Amino acid sequence: MSAYQLLVTVQVIDEEVAKLLELKAQLGGDDGKQTFVLKTAKGTRDYNPKQMAIREKVFNTIVSCFKRHGAETIDTPVFELKETLTGKYGEDSKLIYDLKDQGGELLSLRYDLTVPFARYLAMNKITNIKRYHIAKVYRRDNPAMTRGRYREFYQCDFDIAGQYDPMIPDAECLKIVYEILSELDLGDFHIKVNDRRILDGMFAVCGVPDEKFRTICSTVDKLDKMLWEDVKNEMVKEKGLTEEAADQIGEYVSMQGGMDLAERLLHDPKLSQSKQACAGLTDMKQLFSYLQLFQITDKVVFDLSLARGLDYYTGVIYEAVLCQTLQAPTPAPAEQNGAVSGEEGGVSVGSVAGGGRYDGLVGMFDPKGRKVPCVGVSIGIERIFSIMEQKAELSAEKVRTTETQVLVASAQKNLLEERLRLTAELWNAGIKAELLYKKNPKLLTQLQHCEETGIPLVAILGEQELKDGVVKVRNVATREEVRKASQKRGWGNVCSAVEKIL
Amino acid sequence: MTVSQIDEEVAKLLELKAQLGGDDGKQTFVLKTAKGTRDYNPKQMAIREKVFNTIVSCFKRHGAETIDTPVFELKETLTGKYGEDSKLIYDLKDQGGELLSLRYDLTVPFARYLAMNKITNIKRYHIAKVYRRDNPAMTRGRYREFYQCDFDIAGQYDPMIPDAECLKIVYEILSELDLGDFHIKVNDRRILDGMFAVCGVPDEKFRTICSTVDKLDKMLWEDVKNEMVKEKGLTEEAADQIGEYVSMQGGMDLAERLLHDPKLSQSKQACAGLTDMKQLFSYLQLFQITDKLSAEKVRTTETQVLVASAQKNLLEERLRLTAELWNAGIKAELLYKKNPKLLTQLQHCEETGIPLVAILGEQELKDGVVKVRNVATREEVRKASQKRGWGNVCSAVEKIL
User: Fold this and answer.
1) Which residues are listed for L-histidine binding in this entry (chain A) (predicted)?
2) Can you tell me the ipTM of this complex?
C-alpha cells in the first residue's frame, strides 16, 4: 500500500468510527446506569484543604526562588500526541497512559515535563530560555501505596536552555536547589554531583565494553539502595563483567570529595587516559570554583557513585538528599523524578531533587537536528509535601485552610442586616471576612467557628453597642477586646480600625 | 444496530487501523500539540497568573478553602451524569486496569469528594483544567482542554444568604478584573416552572421549553416563539403568554409586582421563588451590588434626584426645591401629582434608576431639614438644613453626587 493509500484508509476508518460512536451515544450506549463510586482511580488521590494549604506554601517558596533567578514559566497540555512521547523513555515506555482511540489522533498523558519542554522549544524555534514548569505527570507503575508512589504526581522543573559559557548555568541550577531546600526548612541536606563523561571514562578505563555502559550505569545507580557486595554481584553475575573490572569500579565509586578530588583524579594514571573523563573533571573543577563564589560548597559533594538513571544526560548530574528523615509511622514517598529512589525502611536518605545536563534531547525533535543544550533540575515536590504534612501533624501549630481575618458576629437576634452590611464593607476594603449563614446564630457558635478555623479577630455587633454607635473587635484567642470602633459615621471607621489591628 | 454490535464494529475498525500502522512507533518529528489543545507561552502565563491572583484573592477574602482532585476519574463515576454530552468525554485506553476517563467538569468530582469524605458543609473553590472532545472551531476559542474556575457553598443554611454571597463574589471579581461594564442576570427555576405552568405548558415539556427560552440571548423572540409553537408543540396562546413574562426585567420591585400578578400568583412554586427573590435582593442591597443586578435596561434618563413628598399638600415645597436644584445645574424630577404616595415616588426612582430622593415631610420642614436618601440602599445619606433656604439642600445634594 502506498503512503497515500495508507493515509486515506486511516482517515476513512476514523470517520467510520466517529459515526458509529455517535450512533452508540444516541442509542444511550452509556447505559445511564447511575452509580456513585466512592473512590479515586488507583494511584491517585484528592488533596484536602489542609494539604492544599501546605502545598500552596511550598509552591510559593519554590516559585519565589525561580522568579528571583529570572525564570519565566510555560504550560503545556496534559496529553501529547502519542508519537511525541514514543521512543523517548526506553523501557519506561510501558508505563505511559494512553488515551483510548476514539476515532481521532492517538494521545498519551505526559510522562514528564522534559519531553514536552523539548517539543515546545523545537516547535517555537527557541534557542534560549530559562523556564520553570510545575505540573502533574502520569505514570502507570505499580504504586505500593505504603511507599507512597502515586500514578499522578507533581513535577517541579527548572531548566536553562541555550549555548552559554560552560558551567555557569549548571552552577546556577545548584544554587537554586540549595536556596529552595534551605528555605523549605527540611533539615540538613547535601547535593551529590558527578558527570556522565567521568562515569563513562571510568567504565572505559576499567574495561567495561562500550555496549554495556548504560546497563552498568544503572547497576551503579543502585548503590544508594543496595550494598556494594550486591551491586558487584549484579555487575558480575547478571551483566557479565569480570570481577577485576567490578573491583576497579568499586575503588572509584567509593570516592567523594570537592574540587580537590577532581584535581587528584586528573592526575590519576588510569583515569587520565580517558579524554572524556578529563573533560568532565576539568569542568567539575570549574563548577566547584563557581559554587565557591555562590557560597554553597558546604553542602555539595563530588561523588563518583552517583549515576542517575535517565539515558539523556550528557554532562554534569546531581542529586540532593536529606541527611535525616523524620521518624514517622509511614515511610515517606520515594523519589519519582528519575529512576532514583532512596527510600526504604528506617535508614533512609531521602532524595528531594535531581537533574543534570542533557544536550541532545531537543535535537531529537528538530527536523534539522539542531541542538539546543540544556541543563536543569527537578524538585521532588511530592516527597517534600509528604515531609511537610508529617511536620504539620507532629507540630502543635494548626494548619489553617482559610485566610479569613475577621468574623462578623452578632450578640443578639435580628442583627443579620448589620452583619451583612459590615461584612460587605470589610470585603470592599479588601479585608478577608466571613459571617455565618444564619439569621440568628448564637454568639458561642460564632466564636467556636473562629476557634475551629483559626480566625484571629471577631467583630461583635450588639444591640446596645449599635445604639451607642460602636462595634467591639475582639482577639479570639485571648478574648481581649482590642478595640471599640466607632460606627457613627458609617462602617468605614470599623474597617480602618480592623485594618490597624491586622 | 444495537450498542454491542456497534462496539464490535468499532473494535474491528480500530484493530485494522492499528495493523495499518496507526501506532507504528516510528520516530517522526511531530511538532504539534494535540487537536484542541495549546501551550501557554511566558506572556500568556504572566497574564494568567494575574487573573488567577485576583480571583483567588477574592475567594480567600470570602473565607473559601480549596481542594484538588485527579485529572482522571473512574469511568463509572462520570457515567450517567452528563446526558447527551457524555459522548464528549475522553476515555483512557483499557490497558488492563480500571476503566478511566478524564474529568469533564469540576462539579461531579466535587460531589464525589463530598460523598467520599462525608462532608456536609464546605465553602470551596477549585481551579483546574477539564477535558471535552468537542469540535473546537479555533476561531471561536473553544478548546478541548481548558480551565474551569469553580466556587461552591455546600450545606444547609438560612435561605439566600449563601446565594447572595456567590453573587457578591461574581461582582467583586468582574469589577477587579476591570473588564468594563457588566451585568448579572438572576432568575429562579421555580419561577420559570411556575410561569410555564400558569401559561399552560404541559409538565413533560417544561425542560424542553426551558431550553428554547434559553435561546433568547441569541435569537429574536419571533424565532424563539416559532420554535416553541412549530417544533415543540405549544399553543400560540401559551407562547404569547410566556412572551409577556420573559420580557420583564427589574429589581426587587419586579418580584413584588409579580407576587401580585393574578396569574402567576396562582403557582405555589412561583410564589416561593419570588419570595426568595425578594429576600435575595434585600441581601444584595446590603451587599451594595444591586446596581449591576437590576435592569439590563439602560437608563433612558439621567435624573440624579427625585424631589418627593411624604405627606399631602407639599406640592409647593416640591416645586420650589426642584427649581432650586435645576438652577444649581442638578438633574431633578418630581411627579406630576399634587399628592403622590411616597411609595409611588420611590417606585418611580427604582424603575427609572434615579439614585437619590430628597424627601419633604411636614415635621422635617418644621425642623428645617430635608432628608436625602439613597434609593437603592434606602439609607439616609444626609439631613440637609433648609433654614436658610433651599440653597443648602442643593449643596448637600451636590456633595453626595
Assistant:
1) 112-114, 139, 155, 159, 308, 312-313
2) 0.80
